[in-house]
Design brief:
The chain is an alpha/beta fold. The chain folds into two domains: 233 residues, Rossmann fold (3-Layer(aba) Sandwich); 188 residues, Rossmann fold (3-Layer(aba) Sandwich), CATH 3.40.50.2000. The chain is built from 16 helices and 13 strands. It has a seven-stranded parallel β-sheet. Strands 10-9-8-11-12-13 form a six-stranded parallel β-sheet, sandwiched between helices. The protein starts with a strand and ends with a helix.
Length: 429
């Protein structure tokens, strides 16, 4: 089996945990797995790395790494032409990439990826390909193998390509629509991270509906935080925490405004601290504007703590009393962190526009506190209620949270699909 993923350890991107777990589970299930991904230097130069993740790759998996060329962010490595005419240089480069494949920045990987996949097939014939987005060029390679050699493939789209899950707008690019239609038409199975996205694709591609499956992200037992079954010491100020990438989609300004108001209105929060853990944006170069916003908020007890390796996140959760689920807008948005949050048994405050898919996941969680909207007053109410719960929630309530979360453990989400694939190939079909 060939597994194609741009983001694979040591990448620190959010999708890496799904890729790591999926390839490992396929290997554990009995597939002879080869992973096709980027060279390590790609992640060191562009996105940042979590070096602790490579040790988690199943030793039975062969990992084939090939170069990937993103625009150079270090100006010391720029050519004279790029330095003198940077905007024109960038535009020309993007035009070349988009002629190859309709995906900005990633389209240039199409030919090297297909070439490497065909080399692997010649060396060890492939029976099945699983390709995961983002980027979608990974799926293009799996589809080419299907067209040229008849190799069946699983499309792990995760979110969506033609649909923007935040704005709910659909691209009008005919090349994207044509390819997406071909992928869903020809895929053995199509996986998406939540029911809302699955249903959207089933509506737009009804012929594929019976092959579309929801495979939620879930949380990983090996990285899971220890449950908090007791309240924090009464003499210690409460610690609220956000864990995850702080991107432009996150309503950070709204959170900070609500936090400031909550400190003014609730005695319990006047000495409380809000810790924000994670990268500022998706790439190695940090978002300077966000960094300055967080610096200004330090006077209100807000502390930006930076990123933490996945294998060390349990230590972060161990020091927190309330978790902040701060999400971008959209009914298609779940977020992977919601599952890990629930495993802690801690109170969770939702700070996002109403209607996000995460609400469906949290609906049965006993210590969930949702801000009715993104106005400071609504956020302050939810923060105050969660602060009270952090002090008073019983052990039984916290155990109920942990028990509810157990259904979202990642292997429970993946196992039905892995078992179905194993059964299919054991039958020789």
């Amino acid at each position: 089996m060939l597994y194609i993923a741009w983001g694979y350890p040591p990448s620190r991107g959010s999708g890496v945990y799904r890729a790591l777990a999926t390839a490992n589970m396929l290997a554990e299930g009995g597939f002879d797995v080869t992973v096709l991904t980027c060279e390590r230097d790609t992640f060191h130069r562009y996105t940042g790395v979590d070096p602790t993740l490579e040790s988690r790759i199943d030793p039975r998996i062969e990992v084939v790494r090939i170069p990937f060329d993103l625009p150079e962010t270090d100006i010391r490595r720029w050519s004279r032409d790029q330095a003198r005419h940077s905007r024109d240089w960038r535009d020309r480069r993007n035009e070349r990439i988009l002629r190859e494949f309709p995906e900005a920045n990633y389209g240039s990987w199409r030919r090297p990826l297909i070439g490497a996949a065909e080399d692997i097939h010649r060396r060890r014939p492939i029976d099945l390909t699983v390709a995961t987005a983002n980027p979608n060029v990974a799926i293009e390679a799996a589809h080419v193998l299907f067209e040229r050699f008849g190799i069946p493939f699983v499309l792990d789209q995760r979110d969506a390509w033609s649909l923007n899950v935040f704005t709910e707008e659909r691209t009008e690019d005919p090349r994207v629509l044509e390819r997406e239609a071909a992928y869903l038409r020809d895929a053995l199975e199509c996986w998406f991270v939540n029911d809302a996205i699955s249903q959207w694709h089933a509506t737009h591609y009804p012929a594929a509906a019976d092959r579309i499956h929801t495979v939620a992200n879930g949380y990983d037992l090996e990285f899971a935080p220890a449950p908090h079954l007791q309240p924090p010491p009464p003499e210690r100020p409460l610690r609220f925490g956000y864990v995850g990438t702080i991107s432009s989609a996150v309503p950070l300004a709204e959170l900070l405004a609500g936090w400031q108001l909550a400190r003014e209105q609730h005695e319990e929060l006047r000495q409380a601290q809000a810790q924000l853990w994670g990268y500022l944006g998706f790439f190695l170069v940090h978002d300077g504007g966000t960094a300055r916003t967080l610096e200004l908020a330090e006077a209100s007890g807000v502390r930006y703590c930076g990123p933490k390796p996945k294998t060390k996140l349990a230590e972060v959760y161990a020091e927190l009393d309330v978790l902040l689920l701060v999400l971008g807008r959209g009914r298609f948005v779940t977020s992977g962190k919601v599952y890990e949050y629930m495993a802690t048994g801690l109170p969770i405050v939702s700070v996002h526009a109403p209607g996000a898919d995460a609400e469906k996941v949290l609906a049965g969680y006993p210590l969930w506190f949702q801000a009715d909207d993104l106005e400071p007053a609504a956020i302050a109410v939810a923060l105050g209620a969660a602060a009270g719960a952090a002090r008073t929630a019983s052990e039984q309530q916290r155990l109920a949270c942990v028990e509810y979360a157990a259904r979202w453990e990642r292997s429970r989400q993946l196992m039905p699909r892995v078992s179905a694939l194993l059964a299919r190939f054991e039958r020789g079909s």
